[in-house]
Structures
1.
Amino acid sequence: MPIDGLIQATLDNGMQVILRPSRRAPVASFWLFYRVGSRNEVLGRTGISHWVEHMLFKGTERYPRGEFDKAVARAGGVFNGMTGPDWTVYFETFPADRIELALQVESDRMANALFDPDETESERTVILSEREGSENSYFYRLQEEVQAAAYLTHSYRNPIIGWPADLHALTRDDLYRHYRTYYTANNAVAVVTGDFEPDAMLAHLQHYFGDLKPGPDAPPLHVQEPASRAERRVLLRGDDPTAYYLQVFQAPPAQHPDFFPFVVLDSVLGGAKGMGLFGGSANNRNNRLYRALVEQQLTVDVGTSFGPTLDAGLLMISATLAPEAVHRQVEDAVWHEIEAVQRDGVAAAEMERAIKQTRAQFAYSSESVTSEAYWLGFSQVVASLAWLDAWSAQLRAVTSDDVQRVARRYLTPDRQTVGYYLPIQQADDPS
């Protein structure tokens, strides 16, 4: 995604602004990223960022609950909000002549969200219900347990939605303090893409956000995950008759020199991905794990997951076992493919296909006005705009030696956490 034509500014209160005007369609998208997510949470406060994200939809005096929804519908727009490990974001996409409504609402709830006590308690029930619904899936439970085991100290170990005990204990005042600490102009990145006049948009941003007071400096994070020195294993049992497999490895963060070679390694093993909110994975069956597991009838599916993060993240390999297969067979087959890359590298044709498909998926995930704004803001939070600008060139520069090197460095037994989910009737035979 080339990022030519950008206009950048910083308001006096510290809010960063990124504008990318275009005339492709009479549409504009506004995204407001806050530099806060589950990464910023401590034990006893897990899930607080996700809960605060919900509370900012509960209204202000100017826009009581439900009024913004009606205004968006009347204007023919769409909106949403999300919380990730490194960020919280709200966005609106409108017909271009209505985009000012997004600025009105986001500036209002940056400063004036109500956090009504009754709404807070109602949302506690909603979030706990959401957690309980997810827990109906044993694969979700396995993923949560494996993620927690994969980190000793880093807050990436905690689920974004939070642990149940914390969700029961958090108070309205806890949430409001978190809001006042992190959801501030000096901790925000505003992005506007689409059909607008840059000077007029800068004036609108100054009008709606420029007078908001900056908040306190966000508390610094000092936790650093120690290098893994031991293989970790999780064995989960339950009454779901389907068996699941999950294997994760500690992996490099977005700005590490090994990140792009690792993206290609992920593509070789599990297929190319867009890696964004709007990107999927290529519908191809040429990746090594599909051939080794699904085509050999050990699993009915297999997938990998890896994406850009501020701190060291995880490569996840997941699969649903075929009825007659056992976990050890699946694990051995995965290691066979990993060791082949470590031993032999990747042939030129496979490298070319992996890089080409990854670039294509990335292009698909950033082609609309809405997704373009997402990538600009997301990149500024987890890395930099220069990182985004160099994405395609960095991928093209990856060599087979690079992929072999990162496979040898990161995909080792002492860096892995392996999770087996076993139906109760198989619980005595985890092999």
2.
Amino acid sequence: MKTFALFAATLFVFALTISPVVSEDEKESRLTELDAYWAEVSRAVQAGDFEGYAATCHEEGVLVAGTKGTSYPLATALEKWKQEFADTKSGKIKASVEFRFSQRLGDGTTAHETGIFLYTSTNAEGDETKAYVHFENLLVKKERWRTLMEHQKSSATVAEWDALAEN
């Protein structure tokens, strides 16, 4: 039993220390692609382009709503958000989303992005609402990048938002 425990511990440490080597060029290429991905997410939200936004999500994606203590398929979240996209497209409301990152990990086909997003909406009366949200996104790339898991962790403050450098 002692031998097995030593073997298991050694295997665990070994697994933690190995990682694929990603060159600076590969990292730069990935970040350029991901910047374009986030720009498309922002564009789709601002335009009310539901289909464009849905195309950024993996069909088996999951939304983790940390503030609500739940998770469910992104497809379910998309259905909940569909009317807001329609209202934005028709001009009933204005919406936008911006992203700032505190950590960006990955390789050529996977990415884990951590930061804060700012979602702003303005209703027909001109009342503006801003939501600053700590988030983590797990993305995968086959033909294109898509969100596999979006974790809306908790509310963020303006000070926390300001502390993250703009990309």
3.
Amino acid sequence: MSTSKIAIITGGSRGLGRDTALQLATAGHDILFTYRHNREAAEASLQQITALGRQAHFLQLDVGQIASFDTFAQQIKQLLQTHWQRDHFDFLINNAGVGAHAMIGQTSEETFDTLLNVQFKGVYFLTQTLLPLLADGGRIVNVSTGLTRFALPGYAAYASMKGAIETFTKYLAKELGPRGITANVIAPGAIDNDFNRAAFDHQPQIVEYIASQTALGRVGQSSDIGKVVSFLCSEAASWVNAQRLEASGGMFL
């Protein structure tokens, strides 16, 4: 029976999720990750993880489709039994998300509902579904945003969902404490990756502005975030619980 720790990462085929997978693999953990549409990107992530000497597998999942979660949990059970001879995994990283930019006056109900389903409702019920498979003493890391601390016009709906995630995380920590499970939030600042690439390419001056408003003088990279998630899953962070840890380089101080 394998003694490796196993992490489940939603949205692990690109961006922050992929770097988190690589950081956790570098720390000696095995990886189960999801992708939504781009199987080619998932295959590339898989190759990078296995090149680090760790076992990895991926499954397709749209975190906004709550009705699919029971089937997903059964797939996880099968993978755990087949490849690790285990019934439980150790770390749940709720990373998958979508972005939307719209002023309050122009936010459509469709956009709001998409953000709600993916960024909050999906995280809530996927976590609920997977709790029986999460090992006692495990870790949950939810991904929020710096936009819950500072406000930029056009992100009201997005940041509101992330604010809900921050509150949800405190309740996870409280309710799961008897099982020794910690729950924390990481809140990235602006990151130069494919999640923001269209906006950055369209308005390059945004990158310069953000760098000028960040204490460390640059925009973040995905690796800046993956390292912090890996820390929260390490023994060094075993007494960190119910915390919001912003990783923004000191943005808008």
4.
Amino acid sequence: MQHFIDIGIAQNRIPDYQEVKTCPVGSFLSARYKGCALQQSKAILKSYFKLKKKHKNKELKKPEIKKTSMKLDERFFKLEKGNNSFDFWLKLRDPETQEWIEYPIKNYEYAKEYFENWELRPFVEILHKDGKWYAKLSFKKTVELKEKEPKGMDVG
């Protein structure tokens, strides 16, 4: 990700997929993983350029990737219901061998409602925090908004 951010800052533009093809040879990541890193870098750079435009006279610090975090789409992970003492199995695709690595997940009471009543989003974020690795799942739920009578008024 830092490689793509450095290109974007140096050339004052959002990098495109061509940069994935010219990414340093020393990386063991496949083109898919590099493309995933490019997508995350693009989001960071869009935010950076928006701030830069807003604060024209202020010198902005270049974004630096300090915390390990990967946002992976459905090409890189699978979440399957467990059929033993574990509630789920998270399968992640190894970037070097392309084989699936399985991690058991034991659900906690609070999260059970999400799996039962919400829709799992098609991505997972892998975070490294305090020496431990975490999988962050996202859910969405359609909520019907109802029009209600006004309860108060602010004339100020």
